[in-house]
Amino acid sequence: MKIIGITGGIGSGKSRILNVLKEDYQAYIVEADKTAHTLLAAGLPAYEKIVGYFGEKILDEDGEIDRKKLADIVFHDKNSLKYLDSITHPAVKQEILRLIEEKRSEGKTAYFVIEAALLLQDGYRSICDEIWFVQVDPKIRMERLQKQRNYTEEKCRSVFASQPDDSYYRNGSDRVLDNNGSFSDVIEQIRLFLNYEQDVKKG
Questions:
Q1: Which among 114, 108, 110, 109 has a CA at the least distance from the CA of 127?
Q2: Alpha carbon distance 157, 8 (integer Å)
């Protein structure tokens, strides 16, 4: 089983790429952000710690953590964000490691794909066999975010400024997946990436 990490800035098209890997290559997909959401459910250790720190003001009517309320707090408070990350990131990594062992023991999964914005920062280098960086020009990313998520130009620039420069991702990745052109080009790049080892063995 090959473990592939996929990272890239917001608006780079990672979701479409994950869908191709799932549908065309039967890859098992784990999105770190979605995994974090499941670990915030009431009764779980992360929930207790987070509510204990932030208080019940972050809860919704059902007693679950309201992610929007929580995001509004940590967006304006770096110390709160640091604490939240210290709880969620290790919990997410532990769950991903558990899933890797589960799928490996089943012996039915060829590709285990981890998608995370902070893949490099959170030390997934040691977990992944390969890391792919999805590269897209900032202008194109901005156009996509404005069209698909109704982001303002100001919000786009603010989010971009909070993320590392592309050179950081390129230097830390094994492969660069260029998503500046047509998506058919991306599909071909994926095919070549996944057939690479097989082609080398044949040669």
A1: 114
A2: 16
The pTM of this model reads 0.85
CA atoms within 13 A on the CB side of 141: 20
Residue 4: how many CB atoms within 10 A of its CB?
A: 20
Cα angle value 21/24/26 (rounded, 5°):
70
d(CA 34, CA 83): 19
Q: Given this model, what pLDDT does residue 203 score?
A: 39
Give the torsion through C-alpha atoms of 157, 153, 135, 92, to 10 deg: 60
- Mean pLDDT of the residues in the chain: 90
107: its two tokens: 């012996």
Domains, the chain, in order of start with CATH, read 1-27+110-195 (3.40.50.300), 35-107 (3.40.50.300)
